[in-house]
Design a protein that fits this description.
single chain, alpha/beta, five-stranded parallel sheet, 9 helices
Length: 192
């Protein structure tokens, strides 16, 4: 029997927020599918119990409080400053890197495995010790020149390591490298 991929729901009336969040989640949680809903009715008709998580705006959370509070282990409120008590929240008024860090911090705070996001980082080939050091520094926000200075190696060597890392991991963006580094434990989300 083929195992189904986990599915995450995003509930927001703001199409740009929804599409942006879906893009980030598809990078951060490649093992899951992401579905976008513009209102609660569409979401309710799509069998809500099949979703492992609901990313929901504070307004929709407030309007359907009883539903989401009863499923608080699945609910993540997209807050902009104000956070409802007793639920997981992520601030959407931040950049992609900080958002991913918040997501990974939330991931590390999960008490039961069935409530965790299905982040499954795997490298096609293992990283060398030096590649792991370079990845850690890149994920920490350093640019190539700073990585070279910190490790005492040449800039072209850092660029070569970075290219090799991206090739081994099948990742094409710096944000993707950060997501991988956080999910694989190269970087502590609380330390960033």
């Amino acid at each position: 029997m083929m195992q189904q991929r986990p599915v995450i729901a995003i509930l927001t009336a703001n199409v740009l927020v929804g599409v942006g969040l879906r893009s980030i989640l598809e990078k951060a949680v490649p093992a899951a599918d992401v579905e976008l809903f513009g209102n609660f009715q569409e979401f309710a008709e799509a069998d809500p119990e099949r979703f492992i998580h609901y990313f929901v705006t504070a307004q929709l959370f407030a309007a359907h409080n009883a539903f989401f509070r009863a499923r608080s282990h699945r609910t993540i409120v997209l807050a902009n400053g104000q956070t409802p008590a007793g639920v997981h929240c992520i601030d959407v008024q931040t950049d992609e890197e900080r958002f991913v860090h918040s997501l990974m911090r939330l991931q590390h705070s999960v008490r039961r495995p069935e409530h965790a996001l299905p982040v499954q980082p795997q490298a096609a080939q293992p990283l060398t010790e030096r590649e792991a050091e370079v990845l850690t520094l890149i994920a920490g926000g350093l640019i190539n020149k700073q990585v070279a200075d910190r490790l005492g190696i040449g800039l072209t060597t850092v660029i070569s390591h970075r290219r090799n890392i991206m090739e081994k991991l099948g990742i094409r963006t710096a944000a993707g490298l950060v997501v991988y580094a956080l999910a694989a434990g190269y970087v502590d989300p609380d330390g960033m």
